[in-house]
Amino acid sequence: MPNSDDHGFPPGFFDRDDPTPDDRFYAPPRLVTHIDDGAIAAVGALYAELGIDGSAPEPRHVLDLMSSWVSHFRTPPAELTVLGMNEVELAANEAATTRVVRDLNVDPALPFDGATFDAVVCCVSVDYLTRPVEVLREAARVLRPGGVVALTFSNRCFPTKAVHGWLATDDEGRCAVVAEYLRRAGGFTEPEVSLRTSPRSWGDPLYAVVARVDRPHDH
Question: Count of alpha carbons within 13 Å of 169, Cβ hemisphere only?
Fold first, then answer.
């Protein structure tokens, strides 16, 4: 269903070529990776650099949004909650300690208490969100003060399910779009955008947009 509140984005920005319910498209399990080995390694390196994987000195509780059968941590965090569309894929995620099946395009509310997680990550899936501002507003709510959100993406996608605003721009524009999602969600520091793979690489590029919760939670 089209989003009636596009948060200032142009009309049609969040429309898609295939508007049918996502649970049909994602019903068949896809136990494959959607980026190459170099980009996968870049995701794991980012999580280690942010101190949210199993190498962190303190146990971390991480929420992986729009997750699948693999979450790309070098070493899994102490607790990893994976939320995604396909129950079979989530069940195959050996790093997960909790699994939640949910379509965030139908209901962007996250079924967790406030200030629950040290980090929220979303890998190569932000382009499919039709209500990203609401989802990221929820991410701010469930993150602990100072908690980090890390959104990573490449130049690959299922074009019929990516929003039109994503398809209409280039990699630089997509970085700007994701940063703007976070700004409009509120509650985060100014997003930091980076290319995590070598610009000289022939492989998949891996971009990251990272921000932290910058306000105390209300209790």
Answer: 13
